[in-house]
Amino acid sequence: MQESPKYWKGIEELENSPEFMKNALTEFADFLPVKESHGASDATVAPRRDFLKLMGFGIAAATLASCETPIRKAIPYLNKPEEVDPGIANFYASTFFIGQDYNSILVKTREGRPIKFEGNPESPITRGGLSARAQAAVLSLYDGGRLQHFAIKKGNEHVKTDRDQVDQEVRAALASTTGKIAIVSPTIISPSTKKVIAEFASRFPSTEHVMYDVNSASGLLQANGGVLPSYDFSKARTIVSVGADFLGTWLSPVEYAQQYITNRKVSSEKREMSRHYQFESALTLTGSNADVRVAVKPSMQGEVVLALYNAIVGGDAASSYNDESKQLAKAVRDLKNARGAALVVAGSNDPAVQTLVAAINQTLGSTAVDTTAPSMIRQGDDARMARLIREMNAGQVGAVIFYNANPAYDHPLAEQVVNGLKKVKTTISLNDRLDETGILCTYAAPDHNFLESWNDYEPKRGSLSLAQPVITPLFATRQAQDTLLTWAGSPTTYYNYLRNQWKGVLGGNFQKAWDKAVHDGVAVGTASPAPVAQVAQPLDVNAAISAIKSAPKPSGIELTIYEKVGIGNGANIYANNPWLQELPDPVSKATWGNYVAVSRKMAVERKWEQGDVVEVSANDKTIQLPVLIQPGQADGAVSIALGYGRTNAGKVANGVGANVLPLASMRNDGILYTNVVNIKETDAKSPIAQTQTHHTIMDRKAVVQEASLADYIKDPKDVTEYETISTPEGPQKPNKVSLWQDYEYKNHHWGMVIDLNSCIGCGSCVVGCQVENNVAVVGKQEVLNRREMHWLRIDRYYSSDAHKEDFETKGKLDTYEAMEHPSDNPKVIFQPMLCQHCNHAPCETVCPVLATTHSSEGLNQMTYNRCVGTRYCANNCPYKVRRFNWFSYYSNEKFETVNGHMFTDLGRMVLNPDVTVRARGVMEKCSFCVQRIQLGKLEAKKQKRRPQDGEIVSACAQSCPTQAIVFGDMRDPNSRISQIMRREDGERAFHVLDTINTQPNITYLTKIRNTESEVRNA
Amino acid sequence: MNSIRLRSLPHLLLALFLTLAAYGQSLAQTVGSAPAVSKEGVAPDATAGATAATATAPAAGGGDAAAIAAGDALFKGNCAQCHAVNDVVVGPALAGITKRRPMSWIIPWVKNSSKVVASGDEYAVKLFNQYGKQQMPSFQLSDQEVTSIVAWVTSQEGKATGPTDNANGNNIAPGEGSKTPGDDAAAGAGSYVNVLLIVLVVVLIVLVVTLVIIANIMKDVLRGRKDLDGRDVEIIEQRFDYSKIYKSTAVRAIVGVVFVLAVLYESVQGAMGVGLQQGYQPTQPIAFSHKLHAGENQINCAYCHTSVYKSKSANIPSANICMNCHSQVKTESPEIKKIYRAIERKQPIQWVRIHNLPDLAYFNHSQHTQVGGIECQTCHGPIQNMEVVYQYSPLTMGWCINCHRETPLNTKGNAYYDNLVKLHDTKNGAVPFTVSSNGGTECSKCHY
């Protein structure tokens, strides 16, 4: 039997407040204000004189405009590069890593401009996947917030200065420096860059290179002897994660998601899944995907690990964790059963906790942990950074160089950094802009963007990766490595330096091997010296246990500081990126800013409503943020995302949210992303721009289906509920009863299958679609007005524990009431929702001007230049996937801040030239990436053959790191999509809202949860 | 009074008609001395001299058909800029290449000719010297690709001599290859009808004149007779009263309606023409003559517009392509010196763009040239006769759609279409398989 849980779309729906009911019934608000905010009233009425003036002007303008056609120029190259042809995209392999997660990328360039990233399938680490952050990073090249020239601070201003003069002054200053020279950076995984820094240090012997990470893993490093183990989640049949968001933000999420999902995909031939327990405080992306999730306060997470240690390794120090739900015991049972294929990870930065986790994994003999080819992507050492900050304040530092590091903003001791900098004589920033740290530095020598640079990377020992420039530097910047080499007095360029470094690695015919490495973007080999243990001595297990036992047991509200999937660690290129700011958080669906996530119980107790601004204080610092009621949030604890509250990142990021990092606590010079906080109510309100609660159209059955693995094992044909329609001939499938004629597809029939079991909700597709299709960013106010433009959204549904099966035992009324109540810890399901390209499309029949029509290949076509904006189609769309252009987002100055990349010539370089930028007053929606379909067909025709399966993929399908989305030609019997549909027909395949017989071309596959079954002995 | 009015009315109407007609004509025409062009644009018998050499010819002769097909595309993409099969362009004619040289020589030559020359290969050195020590660039092609190019070349040997032999710019229908025999028949029938019409008109005029003369003679005879009564005299002297027509409400109403309709029609036509640039012939910064290059010198279009067979846009050539020849040819010309100056100053030449499609329409050259096998002249007109290029076709959506409705798909030898052609033939084989019957008039084929 299928479980049919009641899903609710948000707290509003759950509460069923009168206001919500009103809104739910009137699906489209009566009055959608055109001007500034909700408050606008009569001001929107235009006076008669204004009308006449505008009309007069309009007629005059139209007349004038039609008189003369502007002369357009066609300007060819003087000397055309051989491989560049206008109109043909070139792809170059490169690498994206800025202190967060590593992604091997293919850069798509058109006419020499990078316009999109795609995953590099050659990479053994990311295997063609990309995170949402990496997808969006192409915009960082065209970021108007970048510093465009070298500068020296005179008074309070940074004055544009000649590069040679900066070089001269800096060299003189460094040569005369007494005391330490510090280079501060986040983790650097580039072996050649490290060598450059070493060379710099040999020129200036008092140099110390200090790495620190915003999302530090120094506890994990310390517990593993100075290296990060490589995890392989595909080898784990039981996974227990204590606060590690490994699918969203922890270390290498793209890599982990791909590994994780290999054991989560099911079919009737493979009816088994891994089992995933998550113990965490905030409801993270990983927690949302877990089979079993237990909400645990941050202070208890160490105790959870201790309890696991006791049960698995056998310790005697009692854990104070109260395993009320008995899930810990089950986790222990499954870990022991899966022995060898069991894995425990923890997100804590406490070395004691990580020491125990290492011991547990060792006892389990986990093959999923590999310390021989360790991961390099976190090398930051909290203690050294803390020491440097003390030294700066003590006046022992003579010069400091910040390379991509912004501790004046993103270090918990930012205040001391600011104070300490005043005592440093020479301060230099190589950051790409005058950020919070850069603005304090005397010299600014901005670095190239990574798309303008040569570089190498070694994300894992033995796996190398290259970055190549794909565009001539846009500004008068210089690559940081070249800058350091220049200052160190080295005559070589970094490119030659890099090649020399690689000569030792590639060997053989170097030029050939080098060309291949540049072409592939990745290579095998290592260029790093053996790891130099930067970190303090590892703890021994007993010391770790006593450290956990002696940790102060907080009383009061606990705070967890976490990273958001979109903004990540809040580095410049993430924060000032409107795509990422507007990417809805996978779980809360909030955009533009952070908030205090509280449990429902706490909100009721403290009489908070969503959007109430509260004051959160700790460490004598206070921040103000609105409250968001988050189901699944551990009670007695709150969560706030880092990466917000920027003041100097650029137009987009400045003033969005508040910076929570000053509230973090330090223990033994290590950053703990938890603290005890005081929360005080204020009178203010600040609405949170969420993208989901207003999509109430889905309040019907059979939108999303799920079942348990146990049921699936029993009978795969019994997990999906198919509705039927009563006819004189008995119940029939909905598509057997139709008034309409069916289309005949002779050539292609494009379709998509979305496996809800594989979709982890990471949002990579949302950004990928936005980049590919020139989708506008609308900003917080317009998201609040329910006018976001994403063509593809990921609907997130929470479930409640009550089921209809309880009707008999508890009575209908009571059950319905119970279904309205949340479980404190809901199950979560993600459903990517985009235009379903219905074969019987309700939108097509209502368009009065035939602007939306059906193609002979199954596409629901949207013709912008025919659309007159009646919006009938959006009203008639049962899936609510059509988007209306309320404004000219590319020219209305109201959107200049948030949609700046469509305004300036600089930003427009990122637009996809094959896709129209839509004008005001027209409807738009997912086109199934028709430009890619057309291109793929054309390539096939040119080569006089049929297109091969996998050649034509939509941007979302291509971005998906877990391959949850499969796009293809359903007319081709051998295509992957046809095979899946044949296999899953009658089992997991279903259409959303099947009964209304829209016959979508998108098929979903029922989600299977491994909730009950026990992991058996291998 | 009446008679004056009577005479002036038809004059007025005539004048009005002529004015309107002239107005309409001026809309269709344009700035300056643009040649008259037809609104239909598609002129199937337009001369095709310049590109005929590359017209897709069915693969014939020996060799694997697939290899030849692949070679066709590769040749156009890589070789056609400097080589023709049966003619010397920049490099030698390739006909008979397999007889002259073995594959084991050709492959390394294509991949890296300078290496072969440097190795001291006698033939290579001779070739190098013979062609002005112009180095053939290296091509990153696989052995198989080179083989397929050669296979294609072999299949084309002697074939395209027609167009190239017919050089010298005269239009002795070098585009014959793309013409169906029916065209000639239709043209013949057309001229026959014309002659017949002229003969008829002449006969009619003679008849009318004869009748008038006869009537006058008879009138004179009657006037001479005295035995006629008053009624008969009245009939003879009868004159038509034109004022009755003028005063007739019915006639007035008809004329009024016709007048209003004519004005309306012309204004609608005028409004539709806003933004249309057919015949647009701007002055270019350099007086480049397509007549000289494409017409008289028979330079292949793709030699300069290198991406026309592979890309969305048929790029305007970069200055280095001009330099391939003009580093030697006509170096003293003031127009050529403009190119030198541009290169020296590193300022690209700013040509005026003639063909402007709106941003909302997607057009891909390679779809039409490489896949559709359409001649450049079909849309761009007799480009080989244009001293200064003008926009030949209206480039309106109606023009696009019309062509898509009428043009049969170029499916021959293209495996993409095999199944579709079969499906079409079994269902309604009588109707031609046009672009639109394959979905070529659907919105999102061009708008996305």
TrEMBL record, chain A:
Listed name of the protein: 4Fe-4S dicluster domain-containing protein
Residue intervals of the 4Fe-4S ferredoxin-type domain: 750-780, 826-857, 858-887
PANTHER family: GLUTAMATE SYNTHASE [NADPH] SMALL CHAIN (PTHR42783), GLUTAMATE SYNTHASE [NADPH] SMALL CHAIN-RELATED (PTHR42783:SF3)
One Pfam family in the UniProt entry: Fer4_11
PROSITE patterns, per database record: 4FE4S_FER_2
Domain of life of the source: Bacteria
Spans through the membrane: none
InterPro entries linked: 4Fe4S_Fe-S-bd (IPR017896), Asp_de-COase-like_dom_sf (IPR009010), TAT_var_transloc_signal_dom (IPR030948)
Automatic annotation (TrEMBL), chain B:
CDD domains: Cytochrom_C3 (cd08168)
Region (Disordered) residue spans: 160-183
Signal peptide (from-to): 1-28
Pfam families to which the protein is assigned, alphabetical: Cytochrom_C, Cytochrome_C7
Transmembrane segments: 195-218, 249-268
Protein name: C-type cytochrome
Lineage: superkingdom: Bacteria
Every Cytochrome c domain range: 66-157
Keyword vocabulary terms for this entry: Heme, Iron, Membrane, Metal-binding, Signal, Transmembrane, Transmembrane helix
Ranges of compositional bias, category Polar residues: 160-171
UniProt GO MF annotations: electron transfer activity; heme binding; metal ion binding
